[in-house]
Amino acid sequence: MKNVMPTYGRIDLSFERGEGPWLFTKDKKKYLDFATGIAVNTLGHSNKDLINTLAVQSKKLWHTSNLYNIKPQGELAELICENSFGESVFFCNSGAESLEGTIKLCRKFHFNNGDKNKTDILVCSSAFHGRTLGTLAAGDNDKHREGFGVNTNGFIRVPFGNIDEIKKFINKNTAAILVEPIQGEGGINRSPKGFLIKLRELCSENKILLALDEVQTGIGRTGKLFAHQWADIKPDVMAIAKGLGGGFPIGAVVSTYEAASGMSPGTHGSTFGGNFLASSVAKSVILQVTEDGFLDNVTKMGNKLSKAINLLSTEYPKHIKGVRGKGLMIGIVCNMSNADLCANLRENGLLSVPAGNNVLRLLPPLNINNEHADICIEILNNTLNNIKVK
To answer: Are strands 320-326 and 329-334 parallel, antiparallel or unpaired?
Structure first.
């Protein structure tokens, strides 16, 4: 693709169609898609309800901008709020945009309440929040920032999962703490038990906002609609995207009324955000994911895959040394190169995604069944058996 800017180290592979958890090339080679566009295709490929929803809406109206009321957007916002802590939702097009909106909301909240110096946001080691200038500053990867003149002022790095250390960084200029419930790009890093509960208490005590990045963990990925629900806490604001549209671009900032009190007309905007097509599709995704038994299946399939990977780690200790994650957000901890394992699995028909700390992610569609899990385990076993590691 000579005219496409070379910002990706692309794999020389192209797909022509998809069906459920499967992708097919032009020559009909079949791949089990446990990458799902990096946790995006929540319901797999060619989901009939999503196709029908998009087809029906596309024949009515695509876009008017947010200068006018958009009925599907209002319905989607109501659906999200009914199933979360949220009371107010801003729609955009991507995870990075939803994080930008979250950062702006946190600072504007304090400005609106007369605390103009409360602009610092505590962000975690190994965090990833996106590729815009603002989210690069919030993330913890110097290589991503190199050459772009990123100003990291206003973001204070704290150790992920260490509540005692985090306490030391809170001062009169602290506006919020921003954290991923489970770090995706950083290596499927789960925080210690009770960490989110203690963070909630810490933020409440210091009258600062708790902001969660649920771009990758949200929309059922961990077995709850949102990962923080496992801790039974309520943040003040949350960024979501990826799985929300099931493959259609959409992101959202979900907030309480109080936290969003500074976001008045003119403070933020998005030309395409929450348009008729995106909102209609996302509404269908949420309705399917919240059906009775759906999230139970996520937990069941996640437990099955994790248990099998743990067993494989005892059989192939030179290759892999365990598994971590929650639900269908699974990280295989590698002893060999995660990139090499990813390539070998791909050769054998299984798609996966590398992450930090030499971890390989499995992020399958949330509606996989036992047959799909068994095929994944078989490919993993056969692949590991055929890789020679010194």
So the answer is: antiparallel
**pLDDT number for residue 330:** 98
3-state secondary structure of 206: helix
Instruction: Please give the structure tokens belonging to residue 363.
Output: 């992020």
Mean pLDDT of 154-179: 98
Give whole-number Cα distances, 278 to 53, 76, 83, 131, 202, in Å: 10, 10, 19, 22, 36
Q: What is the pLDDT of residue 1?
A: 87
Whether the pLDDT of residue 390 is over 90: the answer is: no
Decide the pairing of beta strands 251-255 and 88-92. Answer: antiparallel
Handedness of CA 91, 94, 97, 98 (dihedral sign): positive
Query: Count of H helices and E strands in the chain?
Result: 12, 17
| The dihedral sign for the CA sequence 94, 96, 100, 105 | positive
* Phi/psi-derived region of residue 112, left when phi > 0, alpha when psi is between -120 and 50, beta in every other case: alpha
Cβ-count burial of 305 within 10 angstroms (0-12 exposed, 13-18 middle, 19+ buried)? buried
Do the Cβ atoms of 32 and 351 come closer than 8 Å? yes
**In whole angstroms, what separates CA 307 from the centre of its chain?**
23
For residue 251, the tally of other CB atoms under 10 A from its CB is 29
Eight-state DSSP code of residue 266: T
Alpha-carbon radius of gyration of the chain: 21
Could you give the C-alpha distances from 200 to 178, 209, 228, 236, 240, in angstroms and in order?
Answer: 11, 9, 11, 9, 19
Cβ-proximal residues to 311 (8 Å cutoff; 6+ apart), any chain: none
SS3 call for 65: coil
Q: Which domains does the chain have, with CATH numbers?
A: 17-33+293-386 (3.90.1150.10), 49-289 (3.40.640.10)
Q: What is the mean pLDDT of residues 42-52?
A: 98
Give the separation between CA 320 and CA 317, rounded to whole angstroms: 5
Instruction: Kindly give, in sequence order, each residue whose CB lies less than 8 Å from that of residue 236, ignoring residues fewer than 6 positions away.
Output: 176, 203, 209, 210, 211, 255, 256, 258, 259
Residue 232 CA to residue 229 CA, distance in Å, equals 5
Whole-number Å distance between alpha carbons of 285 and 272: 19
Confirm if 79 and 287 have CB atoms less than 8 A apart: yes
pTM here? 0.97
Task: Determine the Cα–Cα distance for residues 194 and 131; give it in Å rounded to an integer.
Answer: 30
Supply φ then ψ for residue 120, to 5 degrees.
-75, 135
